[in-house]
Amino acid sequence: MPRILITTGDAAEDLEVMYPYQRLLEEGYEVDIAAPTVKKLQFVVHDFVSDFDTYTEKPGHCWPADIALAQVNPADYAAVVVPGGRAPEFLRLNADFQRIITAFFAADKPVAHICHAVVALAPLGVLQGRRTAAWPACEPDVRLAGGTFVDAEAVVDGNMVSARAWNDHPAWMRAFVELLREKAPLKG
Questions:
Q1: Catalytic site residue 46?
Q2: What Gene3D superfamilies does its record include (predicted)?
Q3: Which of 48, 132, 156, 177 has the highest CB neighbour number within 10 Å of its CB?
Q4: Nearest-CA neighbor of 99 among 118, 120, 127?
């Protein structure tokens, strides 16, 4: 059975980890959550409050990481999901995260990312010449990385599927699951 990797860490957006995790399990895939260390991760919830110019952050669910990034062999996985939140700010500095993500792009395996995940992908050069969605405040990061920002709920560019934020989940995961059915079909 194909395995899917979710790369994340503390302060990831709660819904952007849990929705793809549960949706991919529901579809029948094995899913591993990889983080800098194997521990219980603390996710966060971003929401909008009247009279705030930006979103607020509150504690979300806790969930254990299955594997440390250093232990991940990208060849063991059919695809990767990179959630948003604040975790990407720190993951982009992690050499193992960099190794993993560049390996998925080099092998042209399916990659799903959402919201602020582009801040972790941009320094790797993997957005060059690609169309991608992201949280609108990340548009400059996409442009600086040589990509084209698209303000849409699910953007498919080759084997990369992206979305703006958690309210885009249905379209984002629908497009990603369609890609997985083609590139990493379940047996039987």
A1: no
A2: 3.40.50.880
A3: 132
A4: 120
